[in-house]
Write a structure and sequence with these properties.
Length: 474
Amino acid sequence: MRVRLGLIAGFLVGLAAPLVAPSFVSAGGCPDGGEMIEHEVAPGQTLSGIAVKHGVSQRSIERANPRLDPNKIRSGQKLKVCLPGKSSNSKKKKSSSSSGKSCGGGKIITEHEVRSGDTLSGIAAKYGVSVDTVVARNAKLKKNPNSLRVGQELLICLETKKAKNSKTCGYRTPLHTHVVVPGENLGEIAGRYGVRRRDMIRLNSKLKSNANLLSVGQRLRVCPEIAPRDRSKIEYTVKSGDTLGGIASKYGLTTHELLGYQRGKLKNANDLKVGQTLVVYKDGSVLPGFGGYDDDTGVLSSGVQMPSGKYYVVKHPNLAYGTGDSIRLIQTAISAYRRVWRSSPKIHIGDISKKGGGKFPPHRSHQHGRDVDIGYVLKGDKADEVRFVKANASNLDVNRTWDLIDAFLDTNEVKYIFMDYSIQKLLYEHAKKKGVSRDTLDELFQYPRGKKRGHGIIRHSSGHVNHFHVRFRK
Ligand SMILES: [Zn+2]
């Protein structure tokens, strides 16, 4: 069938031109006779989203627009898109022509070209599918899930509806709708999903005029970095011997949250009466289709080595390769910190990634150049010790460390910071004393919700008592 079509096409072309099939048509054309269309970028659209929409690879759009900076896509911008051609003689052609084809159950195949910084779970989350779904269509990954290589073409079987839903989230995560419960502020809600308040405001135009005016039952759109959980409203009858703190911790809540749920009917712990009914919003399991955002494994190509600097020490320069963005952001944060603190011990920069990325034991992550370990700023004789030293209430320079953390957060590109719960407490109390608002504390810190609760940008992970770990978004 394919041969016959080819002959007919060849014959038609032959009428006007010599029977030579060039693999690339003249300037501005598409390879292999594909049709070129113009795509106007819609607000919030990303290159990967546009690629999925047209059933082509991101790389092919980059090839058709040589001057394009894939990280700077603007709404209204016009991009050339080459739709897959009909001829099929090269191997590459064959794979891109499966793009857009059905893979059963109303699903379509899309193609993803692995890029530096990509991770298996990141790719899965981008398309709103499970890691298993990604692996299933790719023999190499089936054999060895660690065989991810830059430039590799992956076929992904995509649920069309799901992909459409997560377009707003740049295909990183599915879109979730949060329903506001009593006592919640925007910071609390942002923290619940591991995002910033401004991420929420961007997605919910109503919040632009007044982010502090939330009403119970209001629906807010969010692209969750922490997987949303099923939430149910239950009633709890106070028993003899109950304390407010006890009831709260039974459900993994803070007393502040529990009080908020009562809509003013309970002012404080002393008002608690046996037989009284309390409203509790209880978190259940992760909602289907969400999760798997811990993109810890991956690769790094064209990594940049952290240069030496006046205000910091790079512990192991040969283990300090990052994405260009991450390296720039670390430098930006340290410079901003030094504008506040003219005098300070040097900042200690630990591991980022190996040259080329990939597995980096004993770290679980640090594979794609977007993770960096940084020492806490300490007081006393250990301040200039290059080896990471355990921080505690007596040696931690809370003032300086908080400002350093703040400088990182100010880059607006931090995905999360891993920090031991005990250090979170010290910084939280300090920030609170300094007048940082409740909204901001709720947005940033997991503390005081317990180290097991997924909440905030700053979260507990064991092994982070002598350094903190910053994961950048890019
Ligand atoms: Zn680390």
